[in-house]
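sorry for the late reply, my laptop died twice this morning and i had to redo everyting from scratch. anyway the thing you sent over, i finally got around to it. pasting the sequence first so we're on the same page, its 379 residues, then the predicted structure underneath. double check i copied it right bc i was rushing
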Amino acid sequence: MPNFFTPEHEAFRKSVQQWVAKELAPHALEWDRAGIFPREVFKQAGELGFLGINHDPKYGGSGLDYWYVTAFCEALAHSHNAGVNMALLVQGQMATPIINEIGTDEQKRLFLEPALKGEKIAALGVSEPGMGSDVANLKTTAKRVGDDYVINGSKMWITNGTRADFITLAVRTGEAGYGGISLLTFPTDVKGFGVSKKLDKIGNLSSDTAILYFEDCKVPARYVLGEENEGFYHIMTNFQGERLTASIIATAGMQVMLDEAIRYGHERSAFGKPLIKFQVWRHKFVEHLTAIEAGRRLTYHAVELFEAKENPVKEISMAKLFVGDLAQKVAYDCQQFYGGMGYIEETAIARAWRDIRLITIGGGTSEIMKEIVSKLAGF
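ok and here's the structure:
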């Protein structure tokens, strides 16, 4: 496999790993139990350039290629806290790329620049109660009234939702179907906006996930991203980056789980020999090492195409599908290998086992990935 990482990429990876080891990993259990992590983490990440890796330098980004994003995700997997990882990736790779791509100078100054610095927290508002993957049927409306849009509706499953300073918001501005959807930058200090509820999830506990409501919220019409009623295309494009980062960090997370399980297997003995010396586990871990490598190569292939602007919807969907399903097996077996220690929260594998469940659900379910690939394959 070609080596896509230059010495500069590896130096960047090392700087991320050092930050993760010092500032994130030691607090993993503490922040999960608190159900939130300090806002200062966003600020630290912004100051270090981790939120604007591939964004426009004019607005605080670094203008680097996507292999730097890949190295960032792989290093972030060592935090042992999927909630923090997800919140930071929403900030840098999900809620802001579309602003970077098609936003006006004003939108970039007001929203993108402070988000990349970690001064404002960003959220992506697409999913709604009763509407997850079926984006074309979203119900939240934005009606043009003079120089403003008046917004009514609700959003659900919104990461960073309880404390976001702005939302990259999907709304209905036209007729039913995908042709009537727009995106806009929505500041959360607008009258009529509120948080209905912070959701009590089974995993990713340190990431706040919320139901939001909009009651006659008024924002300037100039906050629309791109052209009115053309938001569906941008949402679908944005999903590719979201799904690709999920594939990258899940693959790296599996490697972390397996490496730590093997290390544990050398240290822990049973029946007179180290656990790793039992053939059943050696063979199972070899199977997982092989499958993870296959997942990594599939994911890197998708990254290569994505970096080349090849629009690799099929390859990204395949990567997320393969990696997501594999991650469930790897997490299960690694947890089983730890025995009773794998069932207590103090052990990282226990938290990883519950957190990794989200990858086959969030950002498009495995079933949706199969539908996408089947259509692109012509059947």
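DSSP finds twelve helices and ten strands in the chain.
thats about all i looked at so far, will dig more tmrw
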